[in-house]
Amino acid sequence: MFPLYRNDNIYLVVSGIGKTLAAAGTAYLHAMSGQLPNQLFLNIGIAGHRRAITGASRVASRITDQSTGQTWYPSQIICDSLDRSPLITVETVERVYAEDAAYDMEAAGFYPIALRASTAELVQSLKVISDHPGEPVADLDLQRIQDLIGNCIDKIDSLVKALQNLADIVTSTIPTSYSLDPFFERWHFTVTQRHRLRRVLERWAVLEKDESPLTSVPSDCPSARDTIEALENALVAKRLDLHDPAAPTQPKPS
Length: 254
Fold this sequence. Notes:
Elements: E1 4-6, E2 11-13, H1 19-32, E3 41-49, E4 57-65, E5 71-72, E6 76-78, E7 83-89, E8 102-104, H2 107-117, E9 123-131, H3 142-151, H4 153-172, H5 181-186, H6 191-207, H7 224-236, E10 239-241
Parallel strand pairs: 3-9, 4-7, 6-10, 7-8
Antiparallel strand pairs: 1-2, 3-8, 4-5, 4-9
Helix pairs in contact: 1-2, 6-7
């Protein structure tokens, strides 16, 4: 269905251009790699930008689907030499660059599919800036794109390795202090909400090991849905330093 390349640790799918193909390629990648929990998903490609920063790499801090207005906020990560930028996914090649942001055609297709398959900290999008108003996209060819990506391969490799280490931590260790029981005692959770809560608490264990998640839930929180939303909102502001991912030391909640 899609070109697929792999080694012992990494699967690579070439999805093609556009968010529909990116979404399908991400689902295909997940299926072909065994549908394992807490897998790393990294979307790599080129993007335009208003600024003349051709060759610079940017990790998406916000992903917006221009056609629908839907927006996602990937978990904030800290990785040496990798700056962040808002990323706008467009339907056709961008030539105006109206906002101070990167412009691509795939991330809004990739991100929601990958997010369903893994925890948020392990789903990221990295773009290499390829064009700007003074260096239009019409000047790009395949060799130029290969050179741009190739020049950033060390940064890409560094990010992949850091995220792989984090994936190992997420998979192997979740503190018992984040038990589900205190939540079940206060609110009624549907089966779907229980799975969602577990995912949120797994993220919390990585981002905020020293603070109970219950401290971020208002005492008068009326429902399970509001409880989960309060936890998710609290996680948005937390940053993860990939160079010091201290692992929790206790087993998973039950």
